[in-house]
Amino acid sequence: MTFLTPKRLLSTRPILFFSFIMLLKSYLAWMVIFEDGFSWTTILKEIPFVLIVYCLIEWFASKRKLIYYLIANLVMTLILFAVIMYYKYYGVIVTYLALEQVNQVTAVKNSVFSLMDPYYLLIFIDIIIMAVLLFRPKKALNWKRESSKKENKRLVVALFSISIALCLFNILPNRASMNEILKAEQMGILNYEAYMIFSNKDVELLDPNHITQAKIDTVKKVQQPATPELWQKAAGKNVIIIQMESFQNFLVNLKIDGQEVTPNLNKLVNENYYFKHFYQQVGQGNTSDAEFVVNTSFYIPPRGAATMEYGDKELPSLPKLLKAQGYDTATFHTNVVEFWNRSELYKSLGFDRYYDQKFFGLEDTVFFGASDEQLYAKTAAELDRMSQNGKPFYSHIISMTAHHPFTIPAEKYKMTLPERYENTFVGDYIRSQNYADYALGLFIEDLKARGIWDDSLVLLYGDHLGLPIYSLDRDDKELMAEIYGREYGYTDMINIPLVVASTGITEHKVFDQLGGQVDVLPTVANLLGISLDDHINFGQDLFNQTYNVLPQRYYLPTGSFLSSKELFMSGSGYEDGKHYSLAGDGVTEQEATEDEYQRALELLNLSDSYVSQLPSWKKQ
What we know:
- One of its GO terms (cellular component) is plasma membrane.
- About 45% of the residues lie in helices and about 10% in strands.
- With about 625 residues, the chain is of the alpha/beta class.
- The strands form four sheets. Strands 1, 4, 5, 6, 9, 10, 11, 12 and 13 form a nine-stranded mixed beta sheet that branches.
- The longest helix has 26 residues, at about 65-90.
């Protein structure tokens, strides 16, 4: 009797060899993504899908069987690698739906590469070795000959049937899980990817005629005051909204070894209205999603970036509201307008004009376009010109220099970091935000010198997080713990500042109530004295409401939301979800209720139904 050694068995049985290779790669992916890492049950979740693919090869590949194995191995390897890298950037499990992002990903390749730990590349080591072997004719010929033998058909049928049964066993009971990461863990990564391709994507939409502001306010439990605070206080003033790239709230009044990181913003905060419990509501589109949410007071779509999904819609918006009041409207961004489909978004929002890279040029370039200094200098001059036409203006200004991975040129350094911050992700982030604050200070002084500042209502907010928890290494986490005096958490990650400044109106005051980007439009409308009675929106005026529910998507699992005291992060549903105190003190008293959970989901459905059924301007 001839006994095969393990080495011999693997070399003559490609179905065993490649299955073992994929098991090792699954181990790497699970250790990176899932909190509990790899366990023996992972084998029953990942290997059955792999065996289905390899059984099909054994059935149908009479020639070049090894080549088909290599192709299948490469495809599944690329899927796992994409899942790892996407998780490190967004904290979610990537699916085929992200293919529309390919152009955007190539544009942010520096950000992607910065997230890559060298050991991630081990996922490709077998492919490199096999490629080398195939270029050695004798070795390659022997391997092809040995691996070309057909497996026993009955064994293949049995293996295929058992694998199908195990895949269905992993997928079917877990389809209803709200948390996408938990769902991928319950199903297995490759099963989850297949499920997302074949699952029914149609969402049951509500009749838009039944979606009224009264209905939305009832779900949100908003009661409109008879005499709103600050109503019309800024009537007729220019409106300048500044969107700060990757700007998180912990930067406000932060000192590193006695050095102020953002002295100019700190001055604004300490002299004006400041909302410290303000949160991002963006998704796959990041900065462009923030532009959408702030200008519409709608939520981002369930899948994809708002600019891609809603870019052709006739959107009710802040620019249109202000144009009806005689305002001149414009938006400023130093990247090309085609990036994230902004050329269509700006038509949908109704801006009179946009200013992009063609206007700002490529001098003093950082990342995608001109630096913040160039952005603010040329924007100030243009606002001066706009102010001469006798009409108030609305300008939405998108800063960009402090962009991931935050490696700004040395000539932009405006502060010296302590040694422990050098060559760290957190250190690069702080230094880039210090420069962004420097450029902002120049802009404010310029606006004051031109006489624009005193005549304007100015809002500043962060567009989205800059330091994802899942992107930080041990040193970065230690630095964040030093800054916060405790462990850096999810509530900190999505917390951004909102500052409202207007000469003669605002004064130093810190507001404790919960707010999000969806609340900017109604807050501005109240200050300007513009009625929203006939304007569907999902936010609320922050000066006249104390209770709020903020649904979250993408960076947090579907079903997650913020209530007045807590962040709730969904599990399979509400019962197995997690509660995080907004105070960051680790106290979880389950203040976020199941009723709020259901209402948050209802709000998302109302927004999805309303926006997706708006008419297209392309068909006009």
